[in-house]
Amino acid sequence: MAEGRILHGSHEGVQVLRYQGEVRYTLCPALDALIQKQLKSEELMGFVVDLTAVDAIDSTNLGILARLTGMMQKRKLPKVTLVSNRPAINEVVEGMGLEKVFHMVFESGMEPEKMREVSGETPRDEDVPRLLIESHRALMALNERNRDQFRDVVKAFEAEAGFKPPETRSNHCL
């Protein structure tokens, strides 16, 4: 399997992400920074995520995409379009319940030559655990099956990172 990478391009306010190879959590900090930057843009019209060149994608990346759909919904922007013609990837997407929150298509006319690789600064030590926790919580929010599947994973990430679960945090103001 080829090492994973994510390419980015845009066309008339639509941001295009093309995932390639074996996509793992190590790409998430740069991806998250790009998504956060684009979500602040007044010119943002939508997102297209192309998984047609993916060999494998981990749950952290899928969780980041689930989070993206929620952020787009809050901004009252169109559903994120997910492009995938790979049966194994489609099975994972459907197994997570992501087909319910994305607009799914099987092909696109995107030209990878016009895209550049998503990269960024080395993440701070606290960024990776935060992204791992937030992305898996986003998957848990999709359905009961995901809640059961990732509950212990999130608890382990929280314990390792020293995070407190949201329900035990104090909401009191001093």
In brief, what are we looking at here?
The protein has helices at 28-39, 59-74, 87-95, 127-140, 144-161, and strands at residues 5-11, 14-23, 46-57, 81-83, 103-105, 116-117. With 174 residues, the protein is α/β, with parallel strands linked by helices. The chain has a domain at 5-119: Transcription Regulator spoIIAA (2-Layer Sandwich), CATH 3.30.750.24.
CATH H-level superfamily of the domain at 5-119: STAS domain
N-to-C series of helices and strands: EEHEHEHEEHH
Give the number of DSSP strands. Answer: 6
Biggest beta-sheet profile: 6 strands, mixed
Return the CATH architecture of the domain at 5-119: 2-Layer Sandwich
Number of helices: 5
Q: Into which percent range does the helicity of residues fall?
A: 25-40%
Mean pLDDT over all positions = 88
Question: Over the alpha carbons, how many angstroms does the gyration radius reach?
Answer: 16 Å
CATH class of the domain at 5-119: Alpha Beta
Estimate what percentage of residues fall within beta strands. Answer: 15-25%
Q: Give the spatial strand order of the biggest sheet.
A: 5-4-3-2-1-6
Low-confidence stretches: 168-174
The best one-word shape is globular
CATH topology of the domain at 5-119: Transcription Regulator spoIIAA
